[in-house]
Amino acid sequence: MDCLFCKIINRDIPADIVYEDEDVLAFNDINPQAPTHVLLVPKQHVATLNDLEEDNLPLVGRLSFAAAKLAKEYGFAEDGYRVVLNCNEKGGQTVYHIHMHLMGGRRFTWPAG
Q: Where would I look for the motif Histidine triad motif in this sequence (predicted)?
C-alpha cells in the first residue's frame, strides 16, 4: 500500500509524534494552519469517511476522544479549538486515509480561516 499515513504509522517515514494509543497515532502537521495543528489518524486504514463500515465506526470516536485529550494537554480545551475531517477531493482531502485535524491556539472564524 502506498499510503503516506500508513508509512508513518509503520515508522517507515519519520513524523513528530505527539500521541499514540492502541488505535490512534497523532503527529504535528508539517504545514500548520494554527499554532497547534495535529493530525490524528486511525492505525486501521480506511480511505475516506464514505468507506467507513459498521465494524470500524468506533475509529471516529477514538479520534475524537484523542483530540479532546490533546486539547486539554495543550491547554486550549476551555478556550476552544477546531477539529476537521475532510472527505474526498472537493472536501479538501489530500491523503486518502481518514484523519482528523486538531487546531488550536488562535481564534477561528467561519467560514473557515
A: 97-101
Please report which helix (H) or strand (E) contains residue 6, including its range: helix 4-9
Q: b/e per residue, 12-51, with b = 16+ CB within 10 A?
A: eeebeebbeeebbbbbebeeeebebbbbbbbbbbbeeeee
Q: Read off the C-alpha cell for 91.
A: 472536501
Q: Does the pTM of the predicted model rise above 0.90?
A: yes
For residue 111, the model assigns a pLDDT of 73
Residue ranges of E strands in 1-113:
17-20, 24-28, 36-42, 82-84, 100-104
User: Looking at the annotation, which residues are catalytic?
Assistant: 99
| Superfamily (CATH) of domain 4-104 | HIT-like (3.30.428.10)
Q: pLDDT (tens digit, 9 = 90+) per residue, 42-78?
A: 999 999 999 999 999 899 999 999 999 999 999 999 9
* CA nearest neighbour of 37 among 9, 65, 70, 14: 70
